[in-house]
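Quick start: read one record
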Amino acid sequence: MAEKRYDNIVYEKKGGIATITFNRPESLNALNSALMAEFDDGLTDAENDDGIVVIVVTGAGDRAFCAGADIPEIQSLSAIGARDFSLSLHEYTRHMERIKKPIIARIDGFCLGGGHEIAMACDLRIASNKARFGQPEVNLGIIPGAGGTQRLTRLVGRTKAMEIAMLGDVIDAHEAYRLGLVNKVVAPEELEKAVDELIKKLLSKSSVVLGVIKFAINKGIEMDLDRALYYEAECFGSARATEDATEGLQAFLGKRKAEFKGK
């Protein structure tokens, strides 16, 4: 197991998987500038490591994935400082979407505010049935600042996004699943197994093609339909040009299991 040492996260690499754990359990893994800088550094390391296929993001302990931003830090910000802090969070979450590797959020406990925004920037989300989700910033007289007003709307639609952001209510894991915020809900003791099963499926696919799918979806959703369809066609051509596409097609015709190499 390879590992980089940080103060606010735990970063581990093993078997093609990079795991980034928010490690401030005493504050329910609240996000501050130092943690986010370390988080982005871990993401960059995983992004540049050809041996890593899947990235998992989670929180230390069983009380919270991440309960939100560090309130004392927010309180200390001026209006300009708050804007710049928000812009930096946008850079981090956009970086997550640009990485050509699937990012899975493994969620147990509170997933609120900035933590919820980080989870929404992941590609797949698996939650325990005691996970709780929401954007409670309105209760503090502020708004989501790490992409919440935009990604939440794209995930659940305008009406529910308005409700969640304006009321600041916390929703349970089953409601989050119903709304399309998470992919699967399991018992807490089954959470790690469920994530491992998802990872196993992803590892059986072409890593390069997974990246093309991620880009086709993330970029296409920002375009009008005609442009998005053309972009899909370009991505389809890029996928077909890979060695893995040739292998996959030949394996299907030969009635054997494909052996992808990520090329």
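The longest strand covers residues 9-14.
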